[in-house]
Amino acid sequence: MELRQLRYFVRTVELGSISQAALDLGVAQSAVSLQIQKLESELSTRLLQRNPGGIEPTEAGLAFMAHAQLSLRHADEAASAAQHSRLSGVVSVGLAPTTAGLLGLPLMQAMRTQYPDIRIRLVEAMSGHLGQMLNGRELDIAVLFDGHQARRWSIEPMLDERLFVIARADASPTPLPTRLGALADLPLVLPTPRHGLRRVIDTALNALGVAPNVVAEVDSLYVLMDMVNHGIGASVQPWAALARQPDAAARLRWSELEDEGTARRNLLCSLSEDELSPAALATRTTLRHTVSQLVSNGHWRGVTPLHLESR
Fold first, then answer.
1. Which residues form the domain of 21?
2. Ranges for the HTH lysR-type domain (predicted)?
3. Least C-beta-crowded within 10 Å: which of 35, 242, 243, 249?
4. Residues 178, 189: one domain?
């Protein structure tokens, strides 16, 4: 029996709806249903029943509810006691430029609120370089797009970022293509081939036999997006690339690519469990929760969550 199951059950009873509970908890409805089913299976009894007014607890559910609420209260008190023990230390976190534009500030704010004595050292660099730093034990945690370099890492898939064609608002063609096959004649500004995103794009284009019209290769996201803003070419990027673009809706336009294989997986990578300090473990949990909040409140768009539930 898991605290997550108790939390899902209690919130469902309180709101009288699985869908409303899922929305309130920031998880998929199917996840709430599955965990409640597992709970009922473990207890070998029915806890909830449907009626015209929504979801209601059975007699067994009512009896279970009081104890579940008490258990959750005790768990919250235990967590609060642990948090107030004032964890301290320095934790190094690595983020790629697109990720840092969305996650960097919210993560720092969350850490200052929850763990004011933990100092975060934030490194922004390309995913491949961050992987090398993680192997060199220069980082504790990083959000990466490829785990092939892993040397005793803990790796957790977080989400898939869908890709978008991004161009200046007055650039042609109109509308922007939604298929890779239509990119052949579109001037593109892309990262260099050593960049993980470029490898995703090239692999998808090669599968279709499409040769892109690359007019420039730039590994600086700032410079690349500046070139797009000046109409030098369009680019293929995750939605997060727009995070640092003021007035993006007025100056840029974008269209989501619909082809299979046009997504970039984000991995939450860290040193192995036995190498992480308590401060680093707390930071990893906070990072995961911050990402979940950004996705659920719509601040991180164009993504498919994978494993964002709190653990």
1. 3-83
2. 1-58
3. 249
4. yes
